[in-house]
Amino acid sequence: MAFALPNPLPSSLLLLLLMMACSTSAQTYRNHSLGSSLTAQDDDSSWASPNGLFSFGFRRIENGGYLLAIWFSKIPELTIVWSANGDDLAPRGSKVELTTDGQFELKDPEGKKIWGADGALSGVAYAAMLDSGNLVLATQNSVNLWESFNLPTDTILPTNTIGPNGKLVARYSETNYSVGRFQFSVQADGNLVLQARDLAADSSYPVYWSSGTVGTASEVFFNESGSIYVKALNGSILKMISESNSESTQEFYQRAILEYDGVFRHYIYPKRPNISNSKSWPSAWTLLLPIIPSNICTAVMELIGSGACGFNSYCELGEDQRPQCKCPKGYDYIDPNDVWKGCKANFIQQSCNESSSEKDLFYLHPMLNTNWPQSDYEHTNGKTEDWCRNSCLGDCFCAAAIYGFGQCWKKKSPLSNGMVDSTIGGKALIKIRKDDSTFTPSYADCKKKDRSTLILIGSVLLSSSVFFNLLLLLVAFLAVFRFDYFKPKVVQRYPVMPGMNLRSFTYEELKNATDGFTEELGHGAFATVYKGALESNRGKLVAVKKLNNIVTQGDLEFKAEVSAIGRTNHKNLVQLLGFSNEGQHRLIVYEFMSRGSLANFLFGGSRPNWYQRIQIALGTARGLLYLHEECSTQIIHCDIKPQNILLDDSLTAKISDFGLAKLLKTDQTRTTTGIRGTKGYVAPEWFRNMPVTVKVDVYSFGILLLEIIYCRKSFEADIQNEDQMILTDWVYDCYKERKLDLSLGKDEEAMSDMKRVERYVMIAIWCIQEDPSLRPAMKKVIQMMEGAVEVPVPPDPSSFISSI
Ligand SMILES: *[C@@H]1O[C@H](CO)[C@@H](O)[C@H](O)[C@H]1NC(C)=O
Ligand SMILES: *[C@@H]1O[C@H](CO)[C@@H](O)[C@H](O)[C@H]1NC(C)=O
Ligand SMILES: *[C@@H]1O[C@H](CO)[C@@H](O)[C@H](O)[C@H]1NC(C)=O
Ligand SMILES: *[C@@H]1O[C@H](CO)[C@@H](O)[C@H](O)[C@H]1NC(C)=O
Ligand SMILES: *[C@@H]1O[C@H](CO)[C@@H](O)[C@H](O)[C@H]1NC(C)=O
Ligand SMILES: *[C@@H]1O[C@H](CO)[C@@H](O)[C@H](O)[C@H]1NC(C)=O
User: What transmembrane ranges does the database entry give (predicted)?
Assistant: First the structure.
């Protein structure tokens, strides 16, 4: 025996061995006669098998009730091999009883039947837990009238047979014993099959694995030495499922289970410590090969049903060869605690309104070796990937496209049978709405929390002359050039400001790019803006601002401030690409914004799509958050208004026209001459003796948000009804009277999204509070807009307008 081992065993192990030896010998086998019962309580009372290997009784399931079950009692980890009431856990105090009239029933404390052994039980004399793990109800003559082996749940044990029409049904999850998603059954024609199940309908989907033993009635047998096979009723072996040779039932406990992931696995567990390697005992269950099917992810591929994982997810075999259900980019788990439930898109679906195609608002994210087979609704041959991409982007039904080998498949929603495997080839292109993901600033610099410099930029004083601002910006740049040009005498071809992505262009280059300054995008008193295309950058479209006159007198103080602005990099900020400073010519190069300004978009003719407006509002908010909180230097824009929000070809909002730090530093007098130009956007503290903080931008954002919601200017003089002239007043009145729908007019899209309209209006009212400290920070604004944080009822901001 173990005690005679020459190897010194750790004392704890010896103790354990001793205890086991004692408990084994202490087991008494007895027949449980009529009237015997077990109660669900904490003392773990159970009926043990004569060899002490199995127990029958109640097990308390994590945060649930009690499960009437059979388990391996000598193994530390709970290994349940049979259960009666996985779908209907029993409360504490429930009782299983072999009644005096021979019924075997589980009843709750009130006497309500939860489960019962069915069948012709007349003549039952006793119940017994057998050494094999089989619980039987037998007659006086030891004829078994009922056996748990005839009604297996998800597990079979050696000597157990699954006869014709018998089946195993997987549990719901590793620790939830309720009926699960897969089944293993011996069909009447002799075929052993694995199928996924439709839980709601309690029916099965098509077969994903079969033994192919069709023709004669058969059964599955787990023989004494641990081999599992399909055999004909006459005894001949038709198909070997799992063969165990050296690992006999003498040395190992064995079990085979259809697990909750749909895979049939055969496990062994050493009965004794491994003498040559004491570390391997006690050990976990070890898996025997083959596992069936070898790759569940690619095996389950059906016309109906979700596949191995839930809808919209994809299945990937992990390192441990177990399937993992994951969500593609743009999707989240419906229930993070139950990943098999599938995934849902975390963005608003593409509108199918042809006249307001949202094609530009989506992009396709490529996933190599991924497929969602069987959810195609279109298939085209001999096309390019570009064609395939465009076709999916322009099609509101298309949730994803698969492109490979010149073929394009379009997939509809919900995506099913998702799988990733190196054998798949080609790629999946999953469609995601732009702007829904959070940004990642590309400059590490912009994450530091160093707030040493506060830069106020803006054109409050001169808001009507945008180009004067440009001029000042240029002055700033000149200062920097001078500084940089004096030191190294070598003129680089593309000198770049340190730490910045700004490029220096030659005048010729920009002249060529703009085709000799022909296509004018706009002009002001000090500058003209031209459209251009950079040959050196594969025809990238740019906006080139050409300053007419140059007022010099640079100031080196600008350098730090300008470089702070030059370092900003965020997808919701218009990017400064470079400049030219040659002789008399002063030019600034920006990225080109094909859709013009938000002002044109909102107020120019037909009402833009509600969801596009939501995205623009969110984009603007994110851009502001970046300026306020994500950069090493806090930047206050000071002039947020629709004219300063530009839109690129996918309608991404980009904040522009910032970069005028010096203006506020040198000239602290805040005259009111320029304020009219941006009347309605300016926070009240500008007119009071109060410090100007980032909250002035929050105020302006509040006004902008209302304009975006209502597609009208904050002040409209030619409206008949005087109450409606000032948007903020009118909206607050409507909000107070709970009549927000009236102010929406004919905006049906917004009307059908009233909850959001109301939320956004409340956020806007918070933003326009007269008291800056009441206004939320942009981070909070975004959280409220995204619905992550509740919006409290806002107070009346009314006094603000009278103060102007
Ligand atoms: C097991 O899963 C089912 C199906 O999701 C659920 O209804 C049940 O509450 C779960 N049981 C436990 C004990 O968590
Ligand atoms: C259990 O009951 C059966 C039938 O009466 C009998 O043959 C068997 O010996 C009993 N076993 C024990 C251990 O009492
Ligand atoms: C179990 O089946 C295997 C494979 O057919 C066979 O080699 C072995 O002898 C069988 N064991 C018993 C006890 O019948
Ligand atoms: C058992 O049945 C199978 C299939 O019907 C047949 O091929 C085989 O010869 C039979 N074996 C015996 C021993 O009768
Ligand atoms: C016991 O452990 C040794 C060394 O780890 C190993 O080679 C051997 O196969 C093990 N024996 C059994 C029966 O698991
Ligand atoms: C479709 O979009 C157009 C243009 O944006 C709009 O006028 C029309 O009302 C929309 N139709 C529906 C059914 O939403």
Answer: 454-481
Here the tokens at position 285 are 């269950």
CA-CA distance, 48 to 733, in Å (whole number)? 75
* Average pLDDT of span 748-753: 82
What residue's CA is closest to ligand 6, atom 5?
A: 356
- With a cut of 70, say whether residue 499 has pLDDT above it: no
Q: Look up the CATH superfamily of 26-151.
A: Bulb-type lectin domain (2.90.10.10)
Is 167 exposed, middle or buried (CB count within 10 Å of its CB: 0-12, 13-18, 19+)?
Answer: buried
User: What spacing in Å lies between the alpha carbon of 247 and ligand 5's midpoint?
Assistant: 11
User: What confidence tens digit (pLDDT) does each residue in 630-679 have?
Assistant: 876 778 888 888 988 999 888 889 988 754 433 333 333 333 333 323 56
pLDDT of 22: 35
Output the residue whose Cα is nearest ligand 6's atom 10. Answer: 353
The residues lining ligand 5, judged by C-beta closer than 6 Å to any ligand atom, are 270, 274, 276-277, 280
CATH topology of domain 497-592: Phosphorylase Kinase; domain 1 (3.30.200)
Considering 154, 360, 435, 639, which one is annotated as catalytic?
639
546 among the known binding-site residues? yes
pTM over 0.90: no
Interaxial angle between packed helices 610-625 and 778-786, expressed in degrees from 0 to 180 and rounded to the nearest 10: 150
- For 240-282, what is each residue's pLDDT tens digit? 998 876 656 777 889 999 999 999 999 988 877 655 555 544 4
CATH of 152-292, one of 3.40.50.2000, 3.30.9.10, 3.40.1490.10, 2.90.10.30: 2.90.10.30
Give a three-class secondary structure readout of 650-674. Answer: CCCEEECCCCCHHHHHHCCCCCCCC
User: Distance between CA 156 and CA 265 in Å, rounded?
Assistant: 11
Give residue limits of the domains in the chain.
26-151, 152-292, 299-433, 497-592
In the residue annotation, 639 being an active-site residue is answered as: yes
